[in-house]
Design brief:
It is built from 6 helices and 5 strands. The protein is an alpha+beta fold.
């Protein structure tokens, strides 16, 4: 089911999830609060197949952070409001904090750590978005940045020449309390121009 609040996202709204308190150990805290069993999940993350044991109620975000040590995706609101947890699931921006981990099994997961080598559109290293965020000063505290990068990457994958209005729409589910968004939009536009130029040069290469 899609939430009308996040038109660019895949969002589940028909269940309740018990989330890990921010900054606390899920072993100590959840062990005393929730009676649960540990299950082995097998995930394809950033091109690698990873297995880990997590409590059966864990979200994708909790599994990435506390099971696999991929802390780029941030744990903010824990209810799908802020977008800081956004990852790509089969190429679509997905709110990992409200996605049960079992829903991600068998799918291609890309986190901010894997953007530089995702989809083969650019050489391994920094994604043009990451480089332009640095050059344009589009990150301040940086807490929202990983989610914004993933949302923007999904848009530019489809439309590297996206208009500013399209960029604003794609990022409408990502909240930033620091920058005022102007530099973020500038950085996404610049990255899109670079990706468009790269695609054109590849088409011209015999």
């Amino acid at each position: 089911m899609r939430s009308p609040l996040f038109s660019g996202y895949t969002v589940r709204t028909d269940f309740r999830v018990k989330s890990t308190p921010v900054g606390r150990s899920f072993i100590g805290e959840l062990g005393s609060i929730v009676s649960t069993s540990t299950e082995i999940v097998r995930l394809r993350v950033n091109g690698d197949v990873r297995e880990t044991g997590v409590p059966s109620h864990f979200t994708l975000l909790e599994t990435l952070r506390y099971g696999l040590g991929l802390t780029g995706s941030k744990q903010g609101c824990d209810k799908g409001d802020c977008g800081a947890c956004t990852v790509l699931l089969d190429g679509s921006p997905t709110l990992a904090c409200i996605t049960p981990v079992w829903e991600a099994e068998g799918k291609d997961i890309v986190t901010v750590e894997g953007l530089g080598s995702a989809r083969g559109l650019h050489p391994p290293g920094l994604h043009p978005l990451q480089d332009e965020f640095d050059l344009k000063g589009a990150a301040q505290c940086g807490f929202c940045t990983p989610g914004i990068l993933c949302s923007a990457a999904a848009l530019l994958e489809r439309r590297p020449d996206a208009s500013r209005a399209e960029i604003q729409e794609a990022l409408s589910g990502n909240l930033c309390r620091c920058t005022g968004y102007t530099k973020i939009l500038d950085a996404v536009e610049a990255a899109g121009a670079r990706l468009s130029a790269l695609a054109s040069s590849r088409e011209e290469t015999p």
